[in-house]
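Worked example 2:
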Amino acid sequence: MKYIVTALLLFLSLPLQAAEPNNKEIKVYRSPNCNCCHKWISHLEKHKFTVIDILSHDMASVKDTVKLPRKLSSCHTAIIDGYIIEGHVPATDIERLIAEQPDISGLSVPNMPIGTPGMEMGNRKDDYNVLAFSPNGKVSIFQQYLQPQTEHHH
C-alpha cells in the first residue's frame, strides 16, 4: 500500500494547477478489433482524459499482469494513477476515483451492459453496477446505475 501513500503525498505536494483535469492520463489496453473500446475512449476524451491507446492481441495476459479478478473481466483494461479500470466505466466514476483515492485496486463494469459509455444502443439501457475491487479479492459497489422504471406521475 506504500506506493498509494507516496502517490498521494506527491499529489498533495504538487502545485495547485497540477490538479487540473487536463492531467488525467489513462492507458487503455484493447484488442485492435474491438469497436466499443474505441467509443469508450471517445467518451473519456470528451471528459478531458488524455488517452494512451495501446493495442494488444493478448488481452488475457494484460488482465493477468494487472491481477484483474477473472469474474470482473470485460473487454478493455485501462490504468490510471495506478488503478485498474476494466470495461465501460463512466468517466465521472473514474474522476471520483482519482479525487477520492480509495484503497482499492480499481473499478470494473463486467460483461459490457447496454447503455454504458461506448455501449449506447438508442434508448435501451441496462441497470448496471460499477464495482470496486481490492487486492484481497473484496468486491463492493462503487456506483449503481438503475434505469428509471416506466414513468410514474405523482
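Residues 15-22 have pLDDT under 50 and may be disordered. The CA atoms of residues 40 and 133 lie 21 Å apart.
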